[in-house]
Amino acid sequence: YHNFKQRNLAVEQYTHEFDLLRLRCDVSEEDEQIVARYLAGLRPEISDVVYLQQYFSYDDVCRLALKIESQQKRRVSGPKFQFRSAGS
């Protein structure tokens, strides 16, 4: 639980596994500590953006991570525009 990392898991899968590990380990922690562990395990390209957002709970952080992952996927698979110079 303490060293769990997202690696190639989708955020939804990571969150599910994180929650299962937390339950199995039966660890009693403050919400702030849970959020810190969750963020530490996320891929940096997601956690770095979550850190910049306003959140109040673990559930908020999970929702933000899902939204950020979705946005990043859209950017990668979104339409590709080609710009041509005026002389083309």
Main β sheet profile: none
| Distance, first to last CA | 57 Å
**Helix proportion range:** 55-70%
The parts where pLDDT drops under 50 for at least 5 residues are none
Beta-strand percent range: under 5%
- Count of discrete alpha- or pi-helical segments spanning 4 or more residues: 4
H-E order: HHHH
Class per helix and strand makeup = mainly alpha
Description:
There is one protein chain. With 88 residues, this protein is mainly alpha-helical. The chain is built from four helices and no strands. Helix 3 packs across helix 4. The chain is globular, with a radius of gyration of 17 Å. It starts with 10 loop residues before the first helix and ends in an 11-residue tail after the last helix. The relative contact order is 0.14.
Outline the fold blueprint.
Blueprint: H1 11-25, H2 31-41, H3 44-51, H4 58-77
Which terms summarize this structure?
single chain; 88 residues; mainly alpha; 4 helices
Entry summary:
With 88 residues, the chain is mainly alpha-helical.
